[in-house]
Amino acid sequence: MDNNEIWVYIETTGSRVEPTSLQLITKAKAIASGKKVVAILLETPSANFETIVKEYGPDRIETLIDDHFVNATDEEIADALFQVTDKNRPNSLLFPATILGKSIAPRLQAKLETGLTGDSLDIFYENDLLVQVKPTYGDNVMCDIVSPDTRPQMVTVRPNTFRAEKATNPQTEVVKARFTFHKQADSDIIATDPIINSSSKLDDAKVVIALGRGAYSPKNIQLAQDLAAKLSGMVGVSRPLTDEAEFNHDDQIGIGGASLSADLLINLGISGAVQYTVGIKNAKKIVSVNIDKDAPIFEESDFAYVGDVTDFLNALTAQVR
């Protein structure tokens, strides 16, 4: 049976709730238009993640509780989710586009025989259709994708695309879902090692100094690195600079790279193409420097400086203790 709810998969790692899941609860509530927002949470009996999830105000939390989830394979998680979602199919099912989310979502999609859009940068409703916005053609075109004939409408959304906002809902109901854990006969998890790369650190950095083609020079790179070090921040770049020897894909901001949630972002010599600006929407304060007074990046900025990047870096670095 289909229903008119939006379900959000709550990803957990150790004692931590993946922030993207909380961001998706906030986004789901914003676009719900009367639909109930349901968090679907898999946990062990000793965990209590629903306390954290409640702070973001879903209408209901469906908990799947079993000791095996401490070391469950992706296939075992997908099987448990299938048992619950197949009984009462929601209108939509949202996943974080994390390593785990991008592994579980397609497994569940195949079981449900429905559609799935990966790595979306926006979602919204047109009547009952979930429109999933995704870059294509080398990240140069934004494409709207819909799944009109099957439910749930499934999508993975990139981290930090939306901002999580606490919104206490006194009516939040916690329900223990009924399912049977099916052990995967041909697979066991022996050990887990977290993968940490500079891209994930860039996502979480509080201060980011971003360099574009207009600021590319050995001197500006060194000045930006010095400033970032003083501010306990990181240096990122727009896509063209990933072709240079000093940088790589892990340093990229925007489509195909990091989505920032920094407290402070300083853009240096970046024009402001959409491929870049989609990755900075959640930065809290944006300062941009460009010699072109009509650069599109200024429309995305809280503060603008029209002038030379090197002069700006020298002056600002001198002021930072």
TrEMBL record:
| Keywords (A to Z) from UniProt | FAD, Flavoprotein
| Family matches, as Gene3D superfamilies | HUPs (3.40.50.620), TPP-binding domain (3.40.50.1220)
Q: Name one GO molecular function term.
A: electron transfer activity
In the UniProt record, does the keyword Protein biosynthesis occur? no
Which InterPro entries does this UniProt record tie to the protein?
DHS-like_NAD/FAD-binding_dom (IPR029035), ETF_a/b_N (IPR014730), ETF_a/FixB (IPR001308), ETF_alpha_N (IPR033947), ETF_asu_C (IPR014731), Rossmann-like_a/b/a_fold (IPR014729)
- Taxonomically, the superkingdom here is Bacteria
Query: What is one process in the GO biological process aspect for this record?
Result: fatty acid beta-oxidation using acyl-CoA dehydrogenase
One Pfam entry for this protein is ETF
Cofactor(s) it depends on? FAD
Q: Which residues form the Electron transfer flavoprotein alpha/beta-subunit N-terminal domain?
A: 6-193
Q: What residues bind FAD, as annotated?
A: R213, S238, R239, N290
The transmembrane residues are: none
The entry's free-text remark on the cofactor is: Binds 1 FAD per dimer.
Signal peptide bounds? none
UniProt record similarity statement: Belongs to the ETF alpha-subunit/FixB family.
* PANTHER family in alphabetical order: ELECTRON TRANSFER FLAVOPROTEIN ALPHA (PTHR43153), ELECTRON TRANSFER FLAVOPROTEIN SUBUNIT ALPHA, MITOCHONDRIAL (PTHR43153:SF1)
Q: What is this protein called?
A: Electron transfer flavoprotein subunit alpha
Q: Which organism is it from?
A: Lentilactobacillus parakefiri
State the organism's lineage: Bacteria, Bacillati, Bacillota, Bacilli, Lactobacillales
